[in-house]
Amino acid sequence: MNTAHGVIGLERHIRLKLRASSFFKRYWSALQEWRERERLRSDLYYLNDFELHDIGITRGKIDYVVSNRSIDPRGIRSAGPTNA
User: Fold this and answer.
1) pLDDT tens digits for the chain (84 residues)?
2) Number of domains observed in the structure of the chain
3) Is 83 inside a domain boundary?
4) Concatenated DSSP letters for 38-66?
5) Backbone angles phi, psi at 79, to 5 degrees
6) Distance CA 7, CA 9 (A)
């Protein structure tokens, strides 16, 4: 085995390890995000209707709010679209 072949084999090995590492990092990140959503969902379902109303959501909107955390739930309207 010459030096060039050894270096190419090492590069392939490193790329394979990086790819596997990247997969596990993405998997871990997705798992952590899922756990955070489930914790939020559980916390919101634990609140009574008055407390939910106080923060601007209803029990029926909990799943939507948890799935779309970047959206302010107070901007959600339960009535149909308004004419602007």
Assistant:
1) 555 555 566 677 677 777 777 888 888 899 999 999 999 999 999 999 999 999 888 999 999 888 887 766 555 554 445 544
2) 1
3) no
4) HHHHHHHHHS-HHHHHHHT--GGGHHHHH
5) -75, 165
6) 5
